[in-house]
Amino acid sequence: MRHLVPSPQDLWFLPLGGTGEIGMNMNLYGHDGQWLMVDCGVSFNEPLSPQDALTSEVVSADPRFISEQKERLAGMVITHAHEDHIGAVPYLWRRFKCAVYTTRFTAEVLRRKLAQVGLEQDVPIIIVDDGESKQIGPFQVTWLALTHSMPDAFSVTIETPAGRVFHTGDWKIDKQPVVGEGFVASRFSALAKQNMLAMVCDSTNALQAGHSVSESDCYQGLLAAIKEEKNRVVVGCFSSNLARLVSLGRVAQETGRYLALIGRSLLNMVSIARVTGHWPEDLPLIDAAHIGYLPREEVLAVATGSQGEPRATLNRLAANNCFDLTLEADDLVLFSAMMIPGNENDIMRLVGQFKGQNIRTLQQQDTNLAIHVSGHPYQDELRQLYSWVQPEVAIPVHGEAAHLAANAEVAKASHVPRQLVGQNGDLYQLAPNVTVIRQAVKTGRIALLR
Fold first, then answer.
1. With 0-12 CB in 10 A as exposed, 13-18 as middle and 19+ as buried, what is 162?
2. How confident is the model at residue 77, as a pLDDT?
């Protein structure tokens, strides 16, 4: 593969994954002969190409372009601990062998992942704090906290002598998050004074008009949905959504129920939250092994498998094959998670299994209550951030083609002078001149687990 080497006058952005698709984010910034990687994620149960009939269990962007010149890789920045941003690091780090820079909660998640593959002593992890700057090769990187559906989510500014870029990572404007501090607008409006050359921005919900719903409103929606129930309630949600777990803990307290977590990833996430100070000390959990002995009206369980994953807890409950809990007719299974595109058939099959046993289900489309909210910005939030940061160039990422185009339209309406829409493998040249070289680098997918 042809090696592109940026000069001291160049500032480049090169997405290898996550642009033109949702998942497996892998981004490179180039300046003065070196590259900086931002995020290194995975997707699950995906084909390696659109023509493939078979899927692989864990898939990442093909890192060959940078792994073949790893001596030019100054370091890796991980913005937050969602799998589509962090999940490939344990599989791919041996190809890079560079330091990883991230914040405290994300570092704890990463350490546990590395321990599973015997790399916990090998990978240098540099922990940074909100507002802190690090010089990583020719890149000065500064971390700015924002709100998302996971604690410790950060944006970064990347400064070089050729220009500055603001990379949002995943975000929303949530003034009342259940975990962490609310979104601080003044920190982002201050970026306009730094003459930001480009803003590389999350596009996941760019097709959605209005403003996303707060995680605090989701707590109220879950409380309203559960408080009238007289039987067992099981909630399926992503284990990474710590705020949702805290909300369900509060709901359990409000409704006289006991909260239990069924699934290793849920237990691991709460353990990480306790170690890093993100789990409220007054929020008790009971051992899942005890929940089967409780009266039905006192049971609130959280289970893995909201996407219909065959080996997760919800599928085992539907098959009456869960060691800790058995459901009966008129119990409720509530889905507090989005339906990820591609998983519709698996989820509806799971719902059908429950309904076949007269176990009730509740999904977001079944109710006006906010039983799930997104962690990504709607159009009003995109418009607000563009108006605060005032970049010269908007680069939509983290979305399929329609999402990227919608983000660009919002940027244009927000008076951002230029919008560059592309896909993985396109080389965005930001300095000394602004242009895009289409398909400058061959990209693709590789299977990490078959």
1. buried
2. 98
